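Worked example
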Amino acid sequence: MAKAQASGLPSTLTRTENQTIIDSNRNQACGSAPSVPNKSCGEYPIATSHQGLNVGGTRRTQPGCGFSGVPAATGPAGVSVCMIVATENSSQGGTNTQFSGVNESLKTSRSTLSSVEARQASRRLAAALLPEDRHS
């Protein structure tokens, strides 16, 4: 996320629950992702935001992300894609969904998070969702 934001992509995202937009964002970003064992395509801005490819721009990547033929680019429009460890990608998607459920205001408000803040929020959320007997 930090590299994607450093390339000019927005740090402020607005969540959508419109499945047509989510599917369009995800398909345009990751529909032609390479097949890499134990990895899956991660996109930023995330598919559940209004800032994905559904509103325009092009796909870009970062060095070492596993996307040949996809340029590294800069600017505020588009999406950055990277092949990441599948279990981490799935876990982060679940955390994003839970975080949005806990914070209903994110559905209509704008949310700005740095990569450090996002990791910290994910950790706090995970700790809050653990059963009491697992805290000790």
About this structure: Residues 2-129 form one domain. The beta strands are 12-14, 39-44, 59-61, 79-85, 110-112. Residues 86-102 form the longest helix (17 residues). Helices lie at 2-6, 19-30, 86-102, 115-129.
